[in-house]
Structure formats: C-alpha cells, structure tokens
C-alpha cells in the first residue's frame, strides 16, 4: 500500500529542494525523518512536513490494517517548478530590472512494499 502527500507553492527554487530530496529518496522513513530533522537546509523543514503528512495519509488509508512505520520507505519524491513571482527592482539610469522569485511543488510517496 502507498500514500502520497503534495505541498504546493513552496517559496524556494525546485533545484535547491532536489539536492535534499536526493539524500532522502529510497531510504526508510525513520532514517529519512532523522536526516531531515537535523539537516541545516531550508528545504528540509518543508520536506519533513510533507513526509509526515504522507505517513499520516497512509495510516489513515489503512485504518483496519496495522502499519509498522519501520517497514515504510520513501518510494518517490520529486520537486516540480511552480509559478514564478515576478517582481521589479530599481536599476541604474531610471530603469528597472526584473526579479523572478521561483516557487516549487513537492510530492512525496511513501510505501510499505519491499521494492
């Protein structure tokens, strides 16, 4: 059985989030949560929240079946690009320069299968 959690419009670039996701992908849930909790990366807090949500979704999905968290693994996790917030900053000689502030959509899939 597997469950998914999605966090949208994270105010960080997907490229920076993927660096942390590569460390978590394929690990056991307990090990991944431990890594994320003590990581100094800004993305780690959002990934940890999304991972905890995916675990809760799996527990809720399997109400009658007993799910052991030690058997859970991070099956998939990826960050896609979201919409850019377009802002402007003053430049020299009365002009403006454009700032793109990227956002990201984060998806985490948790599974209890032995793959």
3D structure, described in words:
With 115 residues, the protein is an alpha+beta fold. Helices cover 35% and strands 33% of the residues. The chain has a single domain, classed as Ribosomal Protein L22, Chain A (Alpha-Beta Complex). Strands 1-5-2 form a three-stranded antiparallel β-sheet. Strands 3-4 form a two-stranded antiparallel ribbon. A hairpin with a 5-residue loop joins strand 3 and strand 4. The protein is elongated, with a radius of gyration of 18 Å.
How is this structure best summarized?
This protein has 115 residues and is α+β, with helices and mostly antiparallel strands. The chain has helices at residues 14-24, 29-37, 42-61; strands at residues 2-10, 73-81, 85-90, 96-101, 104-111.
Shape: elongated
CATH level 4 superfamily? Ribosomal protein L22/L17
Query: Could you say how many structural domains there are in total?
Result: 1
* CATH fold descriptor: Ribosomal Protein L22, Chain A
Give the count of helical stretches: 3
Mean pLDDT score, rounded? Answer: 94
Listing every helix as H and every strand as E from the N terminus to the C terminus, the arrangement reads EHHHEEEE
Instruction: Report strand order across the widest sheet.
Output: 1-5-2
Distance between the termini: 12 Å
CATH class: Alpha Beta
| Uncertain regions spanning at least 5 consecutive residues | none
Structural class: alpha+beta
**Binned strand content:** 25-35%
**Overall strand count:** 5
CATH architecture: Alpha-Beta Complex
Largest sheet: 3 strands, antiparallel
Question: What radius of gyration results from the CA coordinates?
Answer: 18 Å
Helix content: 25-40%
């Amino acid at each position: 059985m597997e469950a998914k959690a999605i966090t949208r419009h994270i105010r960080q670039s997907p490229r920076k989030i993927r660096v942390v996701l590569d460390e978590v992908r394929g690990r056991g849930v307990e090990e991944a949560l431990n890594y994320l909790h003590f990581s100094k990366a800004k993305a780690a807090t959002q990934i940890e929240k999304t991972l905890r949500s995916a675990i809760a979704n799996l527990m809720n999905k399997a109400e009658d079946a007993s799910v052991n968290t030690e058997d859970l693994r991070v099956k998939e996790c990826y960050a896609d690009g979201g919409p850019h917030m377009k802002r402007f900053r003053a430049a020299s000689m009365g002009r403006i320069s454009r700032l793109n502030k990227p956002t990201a959509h984060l998806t985490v899939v948790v599974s209890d299968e032995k793959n």
